[in-house]
């Protein structure tokens, strides 16, 4: 027997090049320097007023709806009173649009001007001079609402799938034919779908596929297609289009989101960033968890974080929260683009995400496909899904570089209590549970060539700071 050696884990971040321990699988843990609890979801709450920051829920339970199908945030500035109103729109499965004015002291949701849509509306808030406006368009109608005026309806407009405004020009992708990009100058939404001196369309028929989402980024206009990215150059009705990127796999449209100084998106083979010039595949390797299809993916960004709701195949026999029933998505991946560390929240079936940022708070709001679909949620620091704690899991790859026979003798853990540690070897398992906060030590004898470490916890707040395993190599 040779001298005693140690395997030390004091950094759980796979993207730190000095870290020699690779993670095989994890969820509901945040693996950075320490192994901490992940984010979670809870009921969305908002401050009563600017002076009273006590948070209250919106009165969604008072509405005659079974499901929250969509949510939109926008603000309107009133130059006469020099007052800014923050407004939240809720679209329910009764097809009605409800509104709440944040900071008004009231959680009541009112039916907005008797508006109804056949499907959740696509929305675009924009400013003309000192006037804030919003466009809501669905499969049956377009509504335009300017500050100080009642909303009005525009008829005979194509079904719009996305919109952006650039230099007083409105650009739209449409459902059919999806290769056309409609534009209208001077903020003239009424002209969309008509060829006039101030409006028209661009036809993008090439190998990049249909046009799915259009957005303004760094004052330029980009169209995300099924299999690539196009750039539109528009100068006084003089239009040119250039291909920026060709993808080998289909881009999931609803994952496209501006995050900091890049646009993030996902395809069937991974997560990418685009800086306006170059597309770069991130080091976030979740390909082994991706199923063949992820058609219900959705994403949004807040600050330097990219929030991606999707379906993952964790390849185990566990059913975590929403997985016990019918679900479309079962995970949320939250990526910090400053260092591309990330966490995976498992067990939540998120339908859509909406960032809300005011002078007082910023939140990421979420709606749900299955469990909790009658609620409006928000991302929270507590690692739970409403009243349910999120079960946490982390598993290492093989801890030893060599295949020589070893005698493992001691496990020292610096962690919070009620965390289970499993040493897995030769189809066997030895389990330990921490009994206090801080240093926990366990002695044993395990003779094997390779060993893995598995960490589990049902605690809302769980933390592991350092692990040391003693062994002798033969």
Strand order of the largest sheet: 2-37-42-39-40
Unreliably modeled segments: none
Biggest sheet statistics: 5 strands, antiparallel
Shape, please? globular
Number of helical segments?
0
- Count all strands and give the number: 43
Q: Helix proportion of residues, in percent?
A: under 10%
Rg computed from alpha carbons, rounded to a whole number of angstroms: 26 Å
Number of domain modules: 2
Class based on secondary structure composition and strand pairing: mainly beta
Mean pLDDT: 93
3D architecture notes:
With 474 residues, this protein is mainly beta. It is globular, with a radius of gyration of 26 Å. Strand 20 (211-217) and strand 21 (220-225) form a beta hairpin. The protein folds into two domains: 4-35 and 393-473, Jelly Rolls; 40-155 and 247-389, no CATH class.
Structure at a glance:
The chain has about 475 residues and is mostly beta strands.
């Amino acid at each position: 027997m040779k001298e005693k050696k140690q395997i030390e884990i004091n950094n759980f971040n796979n993207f730190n090049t000095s870290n020699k321990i690779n993670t095989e699988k994890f969820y509901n843990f945040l693996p950075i320097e320490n192994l901490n609890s992940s984010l979670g979801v809870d009921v969305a709450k908002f401050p009563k007023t600017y002076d009273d920051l006590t948070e209250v829920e919106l009165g969604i339970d008072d509405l005659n709806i079974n499901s929250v199908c969509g949510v939109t945030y926008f603000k309107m500035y009133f130059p006469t009173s020099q007052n800014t109103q923050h407004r939240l729109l809720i679209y329910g499965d009764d097809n009605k649009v409800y509104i709440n004015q944040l900071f008004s002291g009231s959680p009541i949701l009112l039916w907005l001007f008797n508006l109804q849509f056949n499907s959740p509306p696509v929305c675009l808030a924009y400013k003309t001079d000192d006037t804030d406006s919003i466009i809501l368009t669905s499969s049956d109608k377009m509504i335009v609402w300017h500050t100080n005026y009642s909303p009005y309806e525009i008829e005979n407009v194509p079904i719009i799938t996305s919109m952006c405004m650039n230099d007083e020009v409105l650009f739209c992708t449409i459902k059919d034919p999806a290769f056309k990009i409609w534009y209208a100058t001077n903020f003239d939404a009424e002209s969309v779908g008509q060829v006039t001196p101030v409006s028209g369309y661009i036809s993008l028929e090439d190998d990049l596929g249909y046009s799915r989402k259009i957005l303004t980024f760094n004052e330029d206009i980009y169209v995300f297609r099924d299999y690539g990215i196009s750039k539109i150059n528009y100068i006084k009705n003089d239009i040119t289009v250039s291909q920026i990127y060709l993808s080998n796999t289909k881009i999931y449209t609803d994952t496209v989101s501006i995050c900091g100084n890049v646009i993030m998106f996902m395809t069937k083979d991974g997560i990418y960033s685009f800086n306006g010039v170059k597309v770069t595949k991130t080091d976030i390797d979740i390909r082994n968890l991706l199923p063949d299809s992820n058609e219900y993916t959705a994403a949004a960004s807040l600050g330097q974080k990219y929030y991606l709701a999707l379906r993952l195949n964790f390849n185990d026999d566990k059913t975590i929260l929403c997985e016990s029933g019918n679900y479309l998505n079962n995970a949320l991946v939250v990526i910090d683009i400053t260092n591309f560390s990330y966490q995976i929240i498992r067990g939540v079936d998120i339908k859509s995400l909406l960032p809300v940022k005011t002078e007082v708070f910023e939140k990421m709001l979420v709606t749900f496909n299955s469990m909790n679909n009658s609620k409006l949620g928000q991302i929270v620091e507590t690692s739970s899904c409403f009243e349910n704690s999120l079960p946490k899991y982390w598993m290492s790859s093989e801890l030893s570089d060599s295949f020589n026979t070893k005698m493992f003798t001691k496990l020292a853990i610096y962690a919070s209590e009620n965390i289970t540690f499993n040493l897995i070897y030769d189809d066997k398992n030895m389990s330990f549970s921490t009994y206090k906060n801080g240093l926990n030590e366990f002695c044993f004898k395990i003779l094997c060539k390779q060993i893995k470490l598995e960490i589990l916890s049902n605690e809302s707040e769980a933390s592991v700071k350092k692990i040391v395993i003693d062994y002798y190599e033969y």
